[in-house]
Automatic annotation (TrEMBL):
InterPro entries: Homeodomain-like_sf, InsJ-like_HTH, Winged_HTH_dom
Domain annotation Winged helix-turn helix: ranges: 103-146
Residue stretches making up the Insertion element IS150 protein InsJ-like helix-turn-helix domain: 33-82
Name of the protein described by the UniProt record: Transposase
Lineage, top ranks: Archaea, Methanobacteriati, Methanobacteriota, Methanomada group, Methanobacteria
Pfam families in the cross-refs: HTH_28 (PF13518), HTH_33 (PF13592)
Amino acid sequence: MSNQTLIEEYPGIISEIQTEIKKLENDTRVLNKLYVILDVLHDEPINDIINKHGISQGTAYNWIKQWNNGGMEALKRKKGSKGQSKLTEEQFLILDKAIQENNLKTAKEVKHIIETLFGVKYSLRSIERIMKKLDYTYTKPYKIYAKMPKDAEEQLKKTPDI
């Protein structure tokens, strides 16, 4: 294989592609629900429908209930429901810049800046996911004990494996 670059990358391309994939996945989910509704409208037996579409009976009845309560719109994902980000792509770019400019290191610091800049509240776990999405890595801190010798790491490396 040659060293030729197959795809020209630019800042944010991966995030952009992931966003498009999410949109299409959501459209596919709605399409699958509509196929089930169509089969119900054609009076197919519910057991045949769940076998045909590979879903559980509970899922089929939930989709039917959603349809009965609000038609096509009820089958679509609600804005702000699980899986939908509270921040726009532009806000993610602003956040990325703010993290770099303020040299933020912890999820708590990032959480605070998001609340300050955008007025949006996230859990710390969600902040960790956001940081991962922005290509930041993090490690859990470890304790440094006061009584630990200054060369403890070197001593540990020299200890033979038992």
